Amino acid sequence: MNSEITTAVLVGALFGLGVYALIRALLPGRRGPVSTVARVDALRARGSAGVTFAHQPSATAPAGSAEGKSRAPLLADVRERTGERLAELYVQRGWELRSLRADLALLDRAWESFLATKVVLAAAGLFFGPFLFSMAWMLGVGASPVIPVWLALAFAAGFFFLPDLEVRRDAKARRRDFRRVVAAYLDLVAMSLAGGRGLPEALKAAAEVSDGWALRRIQSALADARITGLTQWQALGRLGDEVGVDELKDLSTSLALVADDGAKVRASLSARAETMRHRELAEIEGSAGEKSQSMLIAQLLLCMGFLIFLIFPAGMRVFQA
């Protein structure tokens, strides 16, 4: 009896704490200067995008954007609105999550869509936990009414963080490929400088060698630099800050210091590319060493199991005798 009362009190306290945290998260708090500036930038970008789309002619839907919006699926519309509300909530609360945003920018995924996916999966987890309990209850396993509540909360929390793990994993592999392309790009820039080109022309020509996704990102950053009036190395630094690649930020800093001296630029780029290749080689060797160690452990476990298989019959005969 006492244990049931204690369990009910703990469940009620946890539920009340969750409701309080939810209300505190939804209520608009006092905004800091960073969140205020971020909100102004977001509203400005949204307004400029709306003006751009308003001036574009539409041949398929001449009646306006309402007809095109009515044709969109209802679930996609709800998902989009949920993502926008959550993104606005994050801005109001000052939750930046720069590392996660950099991973999403590297994967070319929208922040609002990512937040909506997290909420949808969490809602699915709330129903998935009690569903498992109902299946187990039909088989005669478990009868406590507290179990489905804990299962619902556990699966909702787990499903909520599943997209984060997926994004971290995919971004890690994609960032490794991006660093490899940056090393080759620095060699191409150094070769262009050795051929007598200036630094801006060399950066642009090296980015146009291939149409891979990494070089396309560099091409887009350099093209935006010409429009916004930034230098090309500043654009590369901004791209590195956006996608979380420190090598591009360091490259921007070094080029800003020696941009007027072609010989120093060429030597700096060659040294930086060589350093990146050595680092990548060290990471590959370390990964190969970890895999060889895991294979050795697997072989030892296999040998141990085989020895137990051979010794077990003889041991059973000795103990039975």
Features of this protein?
321 residues; mainly alpha
Approximate strand percentage: under 5%
Gyration radius, rounded:
29 Å
Distance between the termini: 51 Å
Question: Helix count, per DSSP?
Answer: 12
Main sheet makeup = none
Q: How many DSSP-defined strands?
A: 0
**What is the helix fraction of residues, given as a range?**
over 70%
- Average pLDDT across residues? 76
Question: Given the C-alpha coordinates, what overall shape results?
Answer: flat
Reading the helices and strands in chain order gives HHHHHHHHHHHH
Poorly predicted runs are 48-71
Q: Structural class of the secondary elements?
A: mainly alpha
Secondary-structure map:
Blueprint (H helix, E strand, L loop, with lengths): L1 H25 L6 H23 L9 H7 L2 H20 L4 H9 L4 H28 L7 H49 L4 H9 L5 H16 L3 H12 L2 H13 L3 H59 L1
Please give a structural write-up.
It contains 12 helices and no strands. It has helices at residues 2-26, 33-55, 65-71, 74-93, 98-106, 111-138, 146-194, 199-207, 213-228, 232-243, 246-258, 262-320. The longest helix has 59 residues, at 262-320. The radius of gyration is 29 Å and the shape is flat. The two termini are 51 Å apart.
